[in-house]
Design a protein that fits this description.
Layout lengths: L1 H14 L6 H4 L4 E7 L17 H9 L1 E7 L4 H10 L17 H4 L15 H7 L3 E7 L17 E5 L21 E3 L2 E3 L7 H15 L6 E6 L11 H5 L9 H15 L23 H34 L6 E7 L14 H14 L18 H8 L12 H4 E7 L7 E3 L3 E2 L3 H8 L15 H4 L12 E6 L2 E6 L2 E5 L10 E4 L15 H18 L10 H16 L1 H28 L3 H4 L1
Helix pairs in contact: 7-10, 9-12, 11-17, 17-18
Length: about 600
């Protein structure tokens, strides 16, 4: 009955004018929304990971752990949907800024800018009397265009970029010469002794301590962990010595068995084929094995560090007597990152990456992995382990790209363990508003409140005939009941639509479109209606976000470092001219035929 007591108290508080007695306001729960970056389905300890995440695990074991929660395959669109409860195209976040073409830029679904009256979960909660804070990675749309202080956040300290070094404000992409942090809309510098997970939590602690204790708060805590570059102090890395020495092939199979044991997937689930260009662990040399084991140690250590610092915040709330009245949500923005810089990229990208890394002082050496200046990344093979037992990873429409962990705990949330009802990122805003007792009409959101599932009142909030869809840069999926249609562009897919029965085949090993042509066509029609309604840009065959990122990266690199490109061109021209002069000299000295005879 606990959930009904909380709901009733919230309703009473809403019926009371703002500024009413503290005893009415305090019954309304605080809300802490925690977003990890690029954490795969099995990256939390409670979901079967080798990584220690005791604080996240404790939250999940006290509440609900969702096993069919879906996001977009890229961070920016996910964050836009997360905070608005809308489809990403409807709020102008059809993809990432870095992968747009000029044609896409001209369309409303890809404007990368919110309207002045755009409602967010923060603005809605603020109107209901909540104090609202955000710290960490923002990364929604054009840099500086949609900063949180304009959309309902009382206090904000954010990185407005897709990522950065975890030790300083330094871009991890050749597209940018710098990254920008903002506090309450103003550019700020980072402290000298900066580490992302620690300082992001420190700033949230500061905001919570400055808040009115008689009014509830909404805190949005967005870690950089475990986005590329993976970085963490050595003590977190060394404790995983030997853990990943078995290699990705063995560990991916082990994750499948663990997922079956936990009931996350059914008996008989099979792993899909290895991703395009994946390497066999046994084919690596000893130095390569040592390198890639160490990278995964850094990744695990970075996740554990984020969990540790989250624990500091939870302990602080406990000390203040506020944790028992705080709903905590912990999830990820998409599946695990597979890209590396300076290591395994395609040749055209690799040349640009290495030149840029040399200029900016990034390195990929074994000795410096995880430390300042290190550009560590786990690569597609370890990403397949993090996403196991599912196929592929971030940027793809596979379960590995879209299906991530989510735990929910706090007042009104029952202790249910793993819950298998379908849910999606646009559900979070209406769910938290519902938990706070803030009234809204269902048609205001693309998502639905998950409270019936979180309280044990219902197994599902989406019926067998209800569908929801995702689309980012030609990568697309639509779910209806246990059915899924999906298309993933090259190189990891063929750009064609496929049909899967996710209930029996979560590894997406068998396309059943031929066996169920009516279902397949119905779902294709549903997707087309969705795409028309929200304004999806249909990419040409062969185009993809990865391809466009390479094109845009080369353009940006040339613009940012034009003087180096000019010097390189001059050196090349001088070399060619020298070779031409040498050739003429040699030919000129060669005796004529009649002179030789």
């Amino acid at each position: 009955m606990r959930q009904w007591i909380v709901a009733s108290a919230a309703a009473i508080a809403l019926a009371t004018p703002f500024g009413a007695a503290a005893e009415n306001e305090i019954a309304r729960p605080n809300i802490l929304l925690v977003l990890l970056d690029d954490a795969g389905f099995m990256d939390f300890g409670a979901y079967g990971s080798d990584t220690a995440t005791p604080n996240i695990d404790e939250l999940g074991q006290a509440g609900v752990m969702l096993s069919r929660y879906y996001t977009h395959p890229q961070c920016g669109p996910t964050r836009a949907s997360l905070l608005t409860g809308q489809d990403n195209h409807v709020v102008g976040a059809g993809s990432l800024t870095e992968v747009l073409t000029d044609e896409m830029r001209a369309l409303p679904a890809y404007s990368m800018r919110w309207q002045e009256d755009q409602k967010t979960i923060a603005s809605r909660l603020k109107a209901a009397g909540y104090q609202t804070f955000v710290t960490g990675k923002w990364g929604i749309g054009d840099i500086g265009a949609n900063l949180p202080h304009r959309f309902g956040f009382d206090r904000s300290w954010v990185l407005d970029s897709t990522g950065s070094s975890n030790y300083r404000a330094k871009s991890y992409l050749p597209l940018y010469k710098e990254v920008e942090w903002f506090e309450d809309g103003e550019r700020v510098s980072l402290p000298e002794d900066f580490y992302s997970s620690r300082n992001i939590v420190d700033k949230m602690l500061e905001y919570v301590d400055e808040a009115d204790p008689d009014r509830p708060f909404f805190g949005y805590l967005a870690f950089q962990a475990i986005h590329i570059p993976v970085q963490v102090p050595p003590e977190y890395i060394d404790k995983y010595d030997g853990v990943f020495d078995r290699g990705w092939d063995v560990m991916r199979e082990g994750r499948l068995q663990k997922a079956i044991e936990l009931g996350l997937v059914p008996e008989g689930t099979r792993l899909s084929y290895a991703a395009h260009n994946s390497r066999s662990w046994d084919e690596l040399g000893e130095e390569e094995k040592a390198y890639w084991s160490r990278v995964m140690q850094v990744n695990a250590g970075m996740m554990e560090a984020a969990d540790f610092h989250l624990g500091r915040l939870l302990d602080h709330l406990q000390t203040k007597g506020q944790l028992d009245n705080t709903i905590v949500v912990v999830t990820s923005d998409n599946g695990p990152e597979y890209n590396t810089l300076g290591k395994t990229s395609p040749p055209a990208s690799l040349a640009v990456e290495r030149a840029w890394m040399a200029i900016e002082g990034w390195d990929v050496t074994y000795q410096n992995l995880g430390q300042p200046g290190s550009m560590g990344a786990i690569g597609q093979e370890w990403a397949s382990v993090s996403a196991a037992p599912f196929h592929l990873f971030k940027f793809n429409a596979s379960e590995g790209g879209l299906r991530v962990p989510m735990v929910v705990s706090g007042p009104g949330i029952e202790t249910l363990g793993f819950v298998g009802g379908r849910s999606q990122v646009a559900d979070i805003a209406p769910t938290l508003l519902d938990a706070a007792g803030v009234t809204f009409t269902p048609d205001e959101f693309y998502g639905r409140s998950l409270m019936p599932m979180l309280t044990g009142q219902a197994d599902e909030v989406y019926g067998e005939k209800d569908s929801f869809a995702f689309e980012v840069s030609g990568t697309a999926a639509l779910y209806r009941g246990n059915w899924k249609i999906a298309k993933t562009p090259e190189p990891f897919g063929d750009g064609e639509w496929h049909l899967y029965d996710i209930a029996s085949d979560p590894g997406e090993t068998t396309d059943v479109a031929a066996q169920h042509p009516v279902v397949f066509q119905e779902m294709l029609n549903e997707y087309q209606s969705y795409a028309n309604e929200v304004g999806v840009f249909e990419m040409a065959a062969g185009d993809s976000a990865r391809k466009q990122l390479t094109i845009n990266g080369i353009k940006k690199f040339s613009a940012n470092y034009w003087y180096l490109c000019l010097a390189l061109f001059a050196a090349l021209a001088a070399t060619l001219y020298g070779m031409f002069r040498m050739f003429k000299l040699v030919v000129g000295r060669r005796p004529a035929r009649h002179e030789r005879t």
